[in-house]
Design brief:
alpha/beta; seven-stranded parallel sheet; 16 helices; 9 strands; globular
């Protein structure tokens, strides 16, 4: 059963019988301001979304904007869905539900990007690693991969077989989004995924995987290689099913020393990026690492199109450092940048939000910048503040 999510703000019927009320067609605040998207579309020679043109390094008429974790707990409609679909895997793997959730911030705020509602762990079952996401505990891997025998249980990924639901979600999002809105996919990077495989769950100190670096480096490299092969294929699958941009997350690589990053993180990031660029050279790529202020030059050296800054880095300094990192390995151009408003600023008054956003936009300049937060939007953020941030950015002109 296929249901247009533009006419389905709440999936509150039975699990397999969804209901629709025409009174809910529009956002509780306002309908999407199509004039801004129309302006972007009119200035382009083709139908390429504004966000994609910016990500490719083109000078654009206004900065595009979206928010990491924009689909999720800060939206009241999402919280209503959680009551009906209590597990994250239900919400992200049932196409009708995932499409609706992905579209909520597009419908409510008019963001320039619509990102697939999913999780970085979603492809793990396709690699032979079962997991669950518990509401209060987070991700839990049922059988950790912490020995050579356990490694043998991993298998080659078959995206067409294992992730048809992801393909359906992306295909439907391409049909549902307003003209000029980019559909984005994402994957987790091998090191971050390996922390879950080795540790078995979220951890604060990463003791087991860091111990493995010294005691069993060949085993860790084998795990990372398996992940890089599978995740690279999965990223390409997302593109082939409709994603116009791929963001890669190496969330926990910011906890590594420079040696560990260069040895166990960066090479496997590059394997994914190289595979994407070999098959889909025109699709922009973005990398994000939390607490990555010390790693910007290394991130840029992977050849990624855009480095997404967290909130701890000054935008002007970040742009210079990204350019320096690219230059060091012979990559041309300045490179693109994403971010990087502190999510906590969205709890401030409107003038502060506007001042802080404008400071970032001025420092980033009109070329190669996608506006975003420096991390995911906080669950307690009001929808009014999220909407104000998006509209503030969309009204800005260089």
């Amino acid at each position: 059963m296929k249901i247009s999510c533009l006419s389905l703000p709440f999936l509150l019927g039975g699990t397999n019988a969804f209901t629709y009320s025409s009174t809910n067609q529009h956002s509780k605040f306002h309908s999407i301001e199509t004039s801004l998207n129309a302006e972007a579309a009119a200035s382009s020679d083709d139908d390429t979304p504004l966000l994609i043109r910016a990500a490719r390094g083109e000078t654009v008429e206004r900065p595009p904007v979206w928010m990491m974790r924009q689909a999720g707990r800060h939206i009241a409609e999402y919280r209503e869905l959680v009551k009906k679909f209590p597990t994250f895997r239900q919400r992200s793997e049932i196409p009708d539900v995932a499409v609706e959730i992905s579209m909520q911030p597009v419908r409510n705020y008019g963001t320039d990007g619509c990102i697939l509602f999913s999780d970085i762990l979603t492809p793990l079952p396709g690699l032979g690693v079962e997991f669950d996401i518990l509401e209060k505990r987070g991700p839990v891997v049922q059988q950790p991969i912490n020995s050579w025998d356990a490694l043998k249980t991993m298998k080659k990924i078959d995206s067409d077989k294992e992730f048809a639901f992801v393909g359906e979600i992306l295909g439907r999002l391409r049909e549902e989004v307003p003209k000029g809105t980019a559909v984005m996919g994402f994957v987790g990077c091998p090191y971050t995924l390996a922390t879950y495989l080795v540790e078995g769950q979220t951890t604060r100190d990463y003791f087991k995987i860091k111990t493995m670096m010294g005691e069993e480096p060949k085993l860790l490299h084998a795990i990372l290689q398996n992940l890089a092969d599978g995740i690279g294929d999965y990223a390409c699958y997302q593109i082939e099913q409709g994603a116009q941009l791929i963001q890669i997350f190496d969330s926990w690589a910011g906890e590594l020393s420079p040696w560990a990053y260069d040895t166990f993180a960066a090479p496997y990031q590059k394997m994914i990026l190289d595979k994407v660029k070999e098959k889909h050279p025109d699709v922009p790529t973005v990398i994000y690492i939390k607490h990555s202020g010390a790693l910007l030059e290394r991130m840029a050296a992977t050849g990624v199109d855009i480095v997404s800054l967290d909130w701890t880095v000054d935008m002007a300094e970040g742009r210079d450092r990204i350019e320096a990192g690219r230059s060091k390995v012979g990559l041309p151009g300045r490179g693109g940048v994403q971010g990087n408003l502190d999510p906590a600023i969205l709890f401030a008054d409107d003038n502060t939000i506007k001042e802080q956003a404008h400071d970032i936009l001025r420092k980033a300049g009109p070329t190669g910048h996608v506006m975003n937060l420096g991390h995911g939007i906080e669950a307690a953020t009001s929808e009014e503040k999220a909407d104000f941030f998006v509209k503030t950015v969309q009204a800005f002109r260089h």
